[in-house]
Design goal:
With 60 residues, the chain is an alpha+beta fold. Helix content is 27%, strand content 32%. It is built from one helix and four strands, in the order ββαββ. Its main location: membrane.
């Protein structure tokens, strides 16, 4: 099930955040920050799939 669609620039600025689950603003902000940090710190040659807190993150 898709829980969110996030578009984040390479500078870490959130361009679009569409959520398909009920969560508080604090939880959403924390998730965006954690996912952005994780994705931007990975080398470009690595796989585009990440396991994160029992969720799959797929990025490009």
């Amino acid at each position: 099930m898709i829980e969110a669609v996030l578009l984040v620039s390479r500078q870490g600025k959130t361009r679009l955040a569409k959520w398909y689950l009920n969560a508080s603003l604090k939880e959403k902000t924390r998730m965006i920050r954690d996912i952005t940090t994780l994705v931007l710190s990975r080398p470009h040659k690595q796989c585009n799939f990440i396991e994160f807190k029992e969720k799959k993150i797929i990025y490009k």
